[in-house]
Structure formats: C-alpha cells, structure tokens
Amino acid sequence: MSIFQYLVESSKNNLDKTAIDIRMSFNNFDKSIRTITYREFLEETVTLACGLKTYGIDENQMLLEMLPNLIESREAIYGQNANGTTVYPISPMIPAFKLEKIVEKNSIKNVIMFGAFYDKFNDQLKNEKIEHIFYLDGLESFNPLLKKAVKLKDKEVKFKIPNDPRIVTWETLLNKGKEFRKKHNIRTYKDFNSYYEKNYIAAVVGTSGTTGVPKGACLSDTAINASDFSERIPEPFKPGEVNLDVLIQSISYGIGIMHHTMSGGLNNIVIPELVTDKLPMLLKKFKPENFSGGPIHYENIIKSKEFKN
Prior knowledge:
This protein is of the alpha/beta class. Helices cover 38% and strands 17% of the residues.
C-alpha cells in the first residue's frame, strides 16, 4: 500500500486525537498556532490532492516542495502520494544555484513553495519549464481567529503575492480541491480513489554528500512503510503520546520519522523554526515522551546546562 493508504489504515482508532500542534517562538511557544486532528488532516490532505489534480498534477510526475515543518508540508507529501506524484522536498537553506540544477536535471514543472523563500530563488524560478508555483503565505498555517487577530494587531503584516502569472495561492488551490470533491462526490477521505503502484517512487530526497557528491535518494512506499513497521516491533508507540518534532522533510529520515510518528497516532508538537539553541528549554517545557531531531539537535542537548547531569 502507499504511505497515504498506510496512514489511513493506521489512523482508524485515532481519528479524533490531535495529530499536529504548531508552536512558535513569538508567543514563547505557550499557545498553539493551530491544532488538527487525524480526521481533519486526512480530509485536508484529500482536498489538497484534488486541488493538484485540477492543475494536471497526477500520476508519474515529480513535484518540488520547499516548505518549513508545517501542517501543509505534511499534507502536501501525503496528498501528492495519494495522487501518484513523486515528491522532491528541498531544504530552503540550499544555495540558489543548486535549485536551478535540480529543476533542469529532473525536468521539474511544478513547485510548492513557502512565500518567504520566493525572493531568494526568484531568478531560478524564472525557468520557463516551471508551469505552476503553489504559494503558501506566512499566515496560512494560523488558525482563522489567530490569523485575524494578527492582522488587526499589526497593520504592517502584509504578504504581498509576487506578480507572477504562474503563482497559485494556497487558498485558490484548496478551493479548486473543494470544487473537485463536490463534482466527483468525494464526501469524505474514504471516498477518494488513491493511487498505488508497487514500484512507484514516493519521494526523492537529497543526501548530504558524505560520499563526495550530494545526490538524490529514491524512496519507495514499501521502504517508508517498512521503516515504520520495523520500528514498531521492538517498542510501539502509545497513541496520544507527545512527540516534539523539529525536523524538516527534505532529508530521508525527516520523511521517515514524520511517517512513523503520524502512523503511530502521536500528538506531534511541531516547531517550524530553527530552534537548536532552544531545544533544552522546549524539552523541559513540553516533557515529550518522544523527540524527533537530527544529530546537531542531540549534540546541543547533550552540551546544554539544562541536561548537564
């Protein structure tokens, strides 16, 4: 089965549990920016998948994704997977010239991008091969009330959409998805006919170049699902346990751990910021049963005064 189908199956008993809780530093991580249940996540994922279909993004295509660790980044990965589209998550920290090479070598026609990254990669995005840029602005991940409050409090908060005819706003993409669902009578995520092919490449992720040359590693549905299943055998999660997640999905274990913790029914407290120096404080604050991070995160935790003993 695909990773989307695997998540649907794994979520059967966790549908009304919290899947993701977004926290940010501007309010000292005290209040949630947005929370979403597993049921809501699956519904939004299907709406996103349907929206992408209306733009001709379907089976046997590759879509480049450049998003922070957000609800939308996860929905985009599972939504593309449900359509049979290969996702290629890219770190926004890569040099701009490398994006141009990736677009050329992989014949990328469609990009999902966080608005804050657009200016950095503006020249590379001018590539005439790119047909659509699905544009997520800075407030889309906020819950509706908080989004309104931020706009009222700070009149200077503006997210001007670049003047690029290829840009499709996130709101437009989701509205197209809702229209598609209505037209095709997809009342719930269970009605969506998701894609699965045994040898399908679910994702391509960049390696760090430890062998001398950075390269793209291909991950199949089977490999990603097997990674989750093998981890559950020695010590399965208890649904509802808290997982503090600071990883992005542009690395192989970022996708693997995302799938592992989502399929395990965890309450994922997701931090979409670089918080390496704040991790000890966050671990003490949330007291999670699980933590998703990379080598640099663990190194900083070990060296911190909070965890000295």
